[in-house]
Amino acid sequence: KEKTFAMIKPDGVYGNYSDKIKAIIMDSGFSIKRELRVQLDEDTVRSFYAEHSSKSFFPSLVKYMTSGPILVMILEKDNAVADWRKLIGPTDAEKAKVTHPQSIRAMCGLNTEKNCVHGSHSIQSASREMSFFF
Ligand code: ATP
């Protein structure tokens, strides 16, 4: 079965959404293979999100991602990468509330930055992100 990497970002953990999100994950047919609560430091965020390092929002992203603990997970199911991306919804959580009201970001995200969860974009990025944390 396929594996993907999932993260509950600081706003999701702080807002007490972790248990609710984990229930949605399991109800959607994923099994949670690994789970770790961590507090990221700035260098770790810069390295994890290196592909965005030249973007104007990068300093803000680093600040947000170090603002509190996160929960990282390895999820497993057939088609896990695409199905988890579908379940979390679009990057902009505000738009998600209108266009994807059933998505996780619609439930607990705030805007384009504070969007509560992360999911790997591809099998390759899933593999990188899983070995980054586990
Ligand atoms: P993720 O990779 O976290 O699942 P994503 O794939 O939907 O999110 P990316 O384009 O990879 O979005 O951006 C990574 C993260 O950077 C976003 O989840 C968000 O927290 C932040 N981000 C992206 N675009 C913006 C923006 N325009 N302004 C502020 N923050 C942003």
Describe the structure using short key phrases:
single chain; 134 residues; Alpha-Beta Plaits; 8 helices; 4 strands; globular; binds adenosine-5'-triphosphate; Nucleoside diphosphate kinase-like domain-containing protein
Give a verbal description of the structure.
GO terms for molecular function: ATP binding; nucleoside diphosphate kinase activity. Belongs to the NDK family. Keywords: ATP-binding, Kinase, Nucleotide-binding, Signal, Transferase. This is Nucleoside diphosphate kinase-like domain-containing protein. It comes from Chenopodium quinoa. By secondary structure, the chain is an alpha+beta fold. It has one domain (2-80, 117-133): Alpha-Beta Plaits, CATH 3.30.70. 46% of the residues lie in helices and 19% in strands. The protein has helices spanning 10-14, 18-27, 42-48, 58-65, 80-88, 93-99, 104-108, 123-133; strands spanning 2-8, 31-38, 70-77, 117-119. The chain has a four-stranded antiparallel β-sheet. It is globular, with a radius of gyration of 14 Å. The protein starts with a strand and ends with a helix. Residues 52, 57, 61, 91, 112-113, 115, 118-119, 121 line the site of adenosine-5'-triphosphate.
